């Protein structure tokens, strides 16, 4: 830069990794089309290559972010950068909420449009597993809050323990859900009940998986000592995301399993 | 810098500069404007006379679907995002967008999405042919068997992802990166319009993603969302689709409201009249716009009370829109007006968009809509909104800001010919469609009753003139970029930061030093 920077904003250097991630997304889309309509093998190869490209792009990109954050130093991020990141994460969660809103709206619309719910040919799953799942996710909400308290009181060991507990609970939840899926007497293609059940719980499960991966990365970064008690944006973003996943589950549990 | 023209592909591929990304958005959208325009001319050629003479029905259906898809997702929205990308950071006194690399990512998804959409024309069975609205059952696995429909869905998915993340970038930039003293209520109205549009996109686009995901799983995984045999309901798709797509209309017009506010103020040399009410009117339109989606579907057999509510909410939108129209008139009143091309396009917008708005009020009325639904009246209405609204606004913005982007004015002489030919031809093209609609001519059908022949021929002649006139803007852009009259930093005597505090074209990080905003109100002169 030719002149002295008189603001606190972070203007990164050009990077190849975002467009690489775009290329990967494009490859995956073209691959899916090939898989469905032209040549299954070509499709699979393209999709695998696309996924690999997306992952490489994402890892390199996020790795760059972590390296830049470390170069600036713990707790040294300007206020506006930290604030901008928070706004960004909140807005991302808003968009996720709206995605789920579409599926919930579909669920309520179809449910109210069908005279009997569940439809007569559907043998419901017992609710004990979902109740257990609810307890597990709510507990994980508590452990992540515990981790938050620990991090703001600079208790590093406790933070790591609580965060680890959180993603382990996430894994247990996912295992329970897989177990439940394998015992369902209906499938995604057995009418609206199966459709809404699997799409809603499936998308939720995918978000639990993403949250779990975020928490695992968080644990690693906590061990490496990336955060201090003042600034820990990635911690907060992950915790918010986790709470969001939690809240979606409470809605699912209430409206899909109980009511 | 955006305009040196000596930088290679790799530079533009990796750039994080909001101005370069903005220009790439604009170029991308220019390409798709012409692709969508060629499709429109194919449609109009077929409709020049009754009967089938030029293309077959299946291809005609592809053209109606793809014309709308390209114009909406690949031409108008990216053009407005491009202008926003270029000018919002400068207008609020920021060195760049909040997440510059994410900005790059948002842009570079578009060519892949566009390639997928364009490629769908060349696969067996051709592209999606069920309208840009993609209603099932026409779009389910039985009636749209080819790859085209899936390519349409995935292309919209990718464009949507780009749009959502781009939108987050805009909101964070505007909330967080304003220069010292630039309070929210001192922001130029274009920044406000982008902020409010971004909010609409943020909450509406994921819902579209949901709708087309359901369509995709219905097609390939046997789900029953829209399949009555499994207890599903095609009307659900319409609800979810319009929950996005009605706000999408506002996504395409609110930034234009911002652009013409800037243009009126600068070229009438007066601050915008009623600044605060302009902001609140924008917000009111956005909020109401999210609550009126079902006015696109009065004829599906909705509950009468629901129809009444949607009808009244829709008509209510005329109130904030009216506030804006009268504020613009008041801005012009007593101003010392320069009839530059930018101003002419803005005035053309004011006159013709008002017609489009009023035909919207007509269509909002459920009993009238039963008659007009799926007729050319709807086509007339939406083209008065998109062409004389969005397109005129984008052109106005282009003539207004081109000197800032390149350092040279667009040729005013070519510009005025461009404006007048466009102004006359759009009316010849689209005004008769109101009559055709009232006579009952259905939209999206390749053949028609010979009683509609004369007016259709007139529409086609208008469309040809309109289409070929647009070559002038391409010529003007490339000619003026090289040989145009050199523009000073403040090319028009504006009072917003992009004119007062930076060169033409702006330097890499926009400002030599971050400006301190000491105006009392937006659009009043700076004293530093």
Work out the radius of gyration of chain B: 22 Å
Give the name of the CATH architecture of the largest domain in chain A. Answer: Up-down Bundle
Poorly predicted runs of chain A: none
Structural class of chain A: mainly alpha
Proportion of residues in β-strands of chain A? under 5%
Number of DSSP helical runs of chain A = 7
3D architecture notes:
The complex is a heterodimer of chains A (259) and B (528). Chain A is mainly alpha-helical and 259 residues long. Chain A has helices at 17-38, 40-72, 79-113, 128-152, 156-182, 191-223, 233-258. Chain A has 2 domains: 12-72, Helix Hairpins (Orthogonal Bundle), CATH 1.10.287.70; 77-258, Cytochrome c oxidase, subunit III, four-helix bundle (Four Helix Bundle (Hemerythrin (Met), subunit A)), CATH 1.20.120.80. Chain A is built from 7 helices and no strands. In chain A, helix 1 (17-38) runs antiparallel to helix 2 and helix 4 (128-152) runs antiparallel to helix 7. Chain B has 528 residues and is mainly alpha-helical. Chain B is built from 17 helices and no strands. The longest helix of chain B has 35 residues, at 57-91. Chain B starts with 8 loop residues before the first helix and ends in a 28-residue tail after the last helix. At the A-B interface, helix 1, helix 3 and helix 6 of A face helix 1, helix 4, helix 5, helix 6 and helix 7 of B.
């Amino acid at each position: 830069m030719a002149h002295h920077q008189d603001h606190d904003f972070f203007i990164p250097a050009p990077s190849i990794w975002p467009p690489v991630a775009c290329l990967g997304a494009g490859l995956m889309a073209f691959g899916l089309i090939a898989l469905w309509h032209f040549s299954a093998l070509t499709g699979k190869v393209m999709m695998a290559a696309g996924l690999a490209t997306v992952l490489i792009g994402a890892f390199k990109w996020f790795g760059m972010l972590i390296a830049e954050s470390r170069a600036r130093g713990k707790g040294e991020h300007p206020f506006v950068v930290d604030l901008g990141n928070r706004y960004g994460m909140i807005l991302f969660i808003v968009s996720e909420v709206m995605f789920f809103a579409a599926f919930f709206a579909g669920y309520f619309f179809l449910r109210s449009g069908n005279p009997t719910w569940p439809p007569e040919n559907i043998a419901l799953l017992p609710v004990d597993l979902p109740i257990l799942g609810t307890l597990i996710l709510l507990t994980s909400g508590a452990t992540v809050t515990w981790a938050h308290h620990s991090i703001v009181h600079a208790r590093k060991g406790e933070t790591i323990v609580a965060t680890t507990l959180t993603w382990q609970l996430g894994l247990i939840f996912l295992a329970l859900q897989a177990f439940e899926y394998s015992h369902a007497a209906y499938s995604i293609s057995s009418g609206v009940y199966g459709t809404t059940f699997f799409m809603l719980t499936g998308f939720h499960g995918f978000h639990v998986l993403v949250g779990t991966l975020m928490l695992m990365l968080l644990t690693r970064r906590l061990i490496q000592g990336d955060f201090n008690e003042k600034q820990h944006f990635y911690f907060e973003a992950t915790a918010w995301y986790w709470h969001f996943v939690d809240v979606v589950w409470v809605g699912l549990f209430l409206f899909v399993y109980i009511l | 810098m955006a305009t040196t023209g000596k930088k290679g592909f790799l530079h533009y591929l990796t750039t994080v500069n909001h101005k370069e990304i903005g220009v790439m958005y604009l170029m991308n959208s220019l390409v798709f404007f012409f692709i969508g325009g060629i499709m429109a001319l194919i449609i109009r050629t077929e409709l020049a006379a009754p009967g089938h003479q030029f293309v077959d029905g299946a291809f005609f259906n592809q053209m109606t679907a793809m014309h709308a898809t390209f114009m909406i997702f690949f031409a108008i929205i990216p053009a407005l995002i491009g202008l926003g990308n270029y000018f919002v950071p400068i207008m609020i006194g920021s060195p760049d967008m909040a997440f510059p690399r994410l900005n790059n990512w948002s842009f570079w998804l578009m060519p892949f999405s566009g390639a997928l959409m364009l490629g769908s024309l060349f696969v067996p069975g051709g592209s999606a042919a069920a309208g840009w609205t993609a209603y099932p059952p026409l779009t389910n696995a039985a009636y749209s068997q080819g790859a085209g429909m899936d390519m349409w869905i995935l292309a919209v998915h990718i464009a949507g992802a780009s749009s959502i993340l781009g939108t987050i970038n805009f909101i964070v930039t505007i909330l967080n990166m304003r220069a010292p003293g630039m309070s929210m209520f001192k922001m130029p109205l274009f920044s406000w319009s982008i902020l409010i549009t971004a909010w609409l996109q943020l909450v509406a686009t994921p819902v579209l993603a949901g709708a087309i995901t359901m369509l995709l799983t219905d097609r390939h995984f046997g789900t029953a969302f829209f399949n009555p045999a499994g207890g599903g309901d095609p009307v659900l798709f319409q609800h979810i689709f319009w929950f996005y797509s009605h706000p999408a209309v506002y996504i395409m017009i609110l930034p234009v409201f911002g652009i013409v506010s800037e243009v009126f103020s600068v070229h009438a040399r007066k601050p915008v009249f009623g600044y605060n009410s302009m902001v609140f009117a924008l917000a009111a339109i956005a909020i109401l716009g999210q609550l009126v989606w079902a006015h696109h579907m009065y004829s599906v057999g909705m509950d009468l009370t629901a129809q009444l509510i949607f009808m009244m909410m829709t008509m209510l939108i005329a109130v904030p829109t009216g506030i804006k129209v009268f504020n613009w008139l008041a801005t012009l009143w007593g101003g010392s007006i320069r009839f530059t091309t930018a101003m002419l396009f803005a005035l053309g917008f004011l006159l013709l968009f008002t017609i489009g708005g009023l035909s919207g009020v007509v269509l909002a009325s459920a009993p009238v809509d039963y008659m007009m639904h799926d007729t050319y009246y709807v086509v007339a209405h939406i083209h008065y909104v998109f062409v004389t609204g969005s397109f005129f606004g984008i052109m106005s913005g282009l003539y207004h800001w081109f000197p800032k982007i390149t350092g040279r004015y667009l040729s005013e002489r070519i510009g005025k010919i461009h404006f007048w030919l466009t102004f006359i031809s759009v009316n010849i093209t689209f005004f008769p469609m109101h009559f055709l609609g009232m006579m009952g001519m259905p939209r999206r059908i390749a053949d028609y009753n010979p009683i509609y022949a004369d007016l259709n021929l007139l529409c086609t002649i208008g469309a040809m003139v309109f289409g070929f006139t647009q070559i002038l803007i391409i010529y003007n852009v490339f000619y003026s970029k090289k040989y145009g009259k050199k523009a000073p930093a403040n090319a028009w005597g504006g009072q917003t930061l992009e004119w007062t505090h930076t060169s033409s074209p702006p330097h890499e990080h926009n400002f030599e030093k971050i400006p301190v905003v000491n105006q009392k109100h937006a659009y009043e002169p700076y004293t530093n």
